[in-house]
Amino acid sequence: MPQQSFSPLTIGPHVVQPPVVLAPMAGITNAPFRTLCREFSGGKGLFVSEMITTRALVERNEKTMQLIHFDETEKPRSIQLYGVDPATVGKAVRMIAEEDLADHIDLNFGCPVPKVTRKGGGSALPYKRNLLRAILREAVSGAGDLPVTMKMRKGIDDDHITYLDAGRIAVEEGVTAIALHGRTAAQHYGGTADWSAIARLKEHVPEIPVLGNGDIWSADDAVRMMRETGCDGVVVGRGCLGRPWLFGDLVSSFESSGGPEGVQQPAAPSLREVAEVMVRHATLLGEWIGDEARGVIDFRKHVAWYLKGFAVGSEMRKRLAITSSLAELRAGLDELDLDQSWPVGADGPRGRTSGNNRVVLPDGWLKDPYDCAGVSEEAELDTSGG
Ligand SMILES: Cc1cc2nc3c(=O)[nH]c(=O)nc-3n(C[C@H](O)[C@H](O)[C@H](O)COP(=O)(O)O)c2cc1C
């Protein structure tokens, strides 16, 4: 088979080589997790912050100011914003540009959670073409030289697909690149991501890079997505939960033989090695928060992901998920049979996998995709998701 090498991904002035991106994940992709992934990737790739709401940012909410803190070694600094009001988005973007808070801004239009879509925010918003356009216009003009990208889903549901229109609007408004999660809001995280939509978007907006997202669980999957869709880069989310070393796999697969033909053996850490990463992750969180106990408590949500597939009894799993100090975490881990090798069952889907039955929307939302009504800022609740 002929070798096929992938071009570097360019996001404005930033060259991302190989073209692999850590998906923004609220509550997960904070500076410590990004650092961990970067350590495994040898500094290659792009690592996007968790979602920051524009209103909280312009109000300089204390927690938000902490969330936008980047490690000094992070380059480029990628921040994801979520907003529904063009003026507030514009203000937030200008603040980032003027105060040099980041090097790249990604806008989130993919959040499927009912409390956001109910108000017309998140993945409901691109249905209102004019509002989407107004937000993108404010963002791009406020950002100055900083590249602005957007991340979205295919649409609200199969009867209300928006990604092609949204992609065209993005190009017209000067957005630098688009990431598409190949699911509708109605699908939430259920079913499988539709990679053919990524290919269609690529054909539809040849002017700018298209990044594919959804169901990349291994470096093989990433390479396959690039080949099958012709996308310019991949965005990897849940596959990294409890597996930050996936970034090492991604980089070596893309780099081997200058392309996708020589996919390397995936990392298969023993439980001892996984335990070391767990302690490192919890330590970084504590340092970042400035409080060891709070760091370990924040780490609790990651425990089940790291231990997935290993023979660890349910009592021990529970115990490890309620630790409050590094010493307690270490002591618990030391009691495990650390010589276990990487379990086959740990590969494949992890994290959220459930579907959603119905997308809750404001009354009359679907009547007119082009009306110029705005969205209440209540749609900008501090919430997670994409
Ligand atoms: C816990 C969690 C939090 C997420 N938070 C965000 C977010 O803040 N912004 C966003 O654009 N997407 C968010 N997403 C969606 C992911 O970025 C990604 O689009 C989705 O998980 C599909 O990619 P995957 O199959 O590689 O996981 C989140 C996903 C998860 C599982």
Automatic annotation (TrEMBL):
<feature type="binding site">
    <location>
        <position position="80"/>
    </location>
    <ligand>
        <name>FMN</name>
    </ligand>
</feature>
<keyword id="KW-0819">tRNA processing</keyword>
<dbReference type="InterPro" id="IPR035587">
    <property type="entry name" value="DUS-like_FMN-bd"/>
</dbReference>
<keyword id="KW-0521">NADP</keyword>
<feature type="binding site">
    <location>
        <begin position="24"/>
        <end position="26"/>
    </location>
    <ligand>
        <name>FMN</name>
    </ligand>
</feature>
<dbReference type="GO" id="GO:0000049">
    <property type="term" value="F:tRNA binding"/>
</dbReference>
<keyword id="KW-0694">RNA-binding</keyword>
<dbReference type="InterPro" id="IPR004652">
    <property type="entry name" value="DusB-like"/>
</dbReference>
<dbReference type="Pfam" id="PF01207">
    <property type="entry name" value="Dus"/>
</dbReference>
<dbReference type="GO" id="GO:0017150">
    <property type="term" value="F:tRNA dihydrouridine synthase activity"/>
</dbReference>
<protein>
    <recommendedName>
        <fullName>tRNA-dihydrouridine synthase</fullName>
        <ecNumber>1.3.1.-</ecNumber>
    </recommendedName>
</protein>
<dbReference type="InterPro" id="IPR001269">
    <property type="entry name" value="DUS_fam"/>
</dbReference>
<keyword id="KW-0288">FMN</keyword>
<dbReference type="InterPro" id="IPR018517">
    <property type="entry name" value="tRNA_hU_synthase_CS"/>
</dbReference>
<dbReference type="GO" id="GO:0050660">
    <property type="term" value="F:flavin adenine dinucleotide binding"/>
</dbReference>
<comment type="function">
    <text>Catalyzes the synthesis of 5,6-dihydrouridine (D), a modified base found in the D-loop of most tRNAs, via the reduction of the C5-C6 double bond in target uridines.</text>
</comment>
<feature type="domain" description="DUS-like FMN-binding">
    <location>
        <begin position="22"/>
        <end position="329"/>
    </location>
</feature>
<keyword id="KW-0285">Flavoprotein</keyword>
<feature type="binding site">
    <location>
        <position position="181"/>
    </location>
    <ligand>
        <name>FMN</name>
    </ligand>
</feature>
<comment type="similarity">
    <text>Belongs to the dus family.</text>
</comment>
<feature type="binding site">
    <location>
        <position position="151"/>
    </location>
    <ligand>
        <name>FMN</name>
    </ligand>
</feature>
<keyword id="KW-0560">Oxidoreductase</keyword>
<feature type="binding site">
    <location>
        <begin position="237"/>
        <end position="238"/>
    </location>
    <ligand>
        <name>FMN</name>
    </ligand>
</feature>
<dbReference type="InterPro" id="IPR024036">
    <property type="entry name" value="tRNA-dHydroUridine_Synthase_C"/>
</dbReference>
<keyword id="KW-0547">Nucleotide-binding</keyword>
<feature type="active site" description="Proton donor">
    <location>
        <position position="111"/>
    </location>
</feature>
<dbReference type="InterPro" id="IPR013785">
    <property type="entry name" value="Aldolase_TIM"/>
</dbReference>
<keyword id="KW-0820">tRNA-binding</keyword>
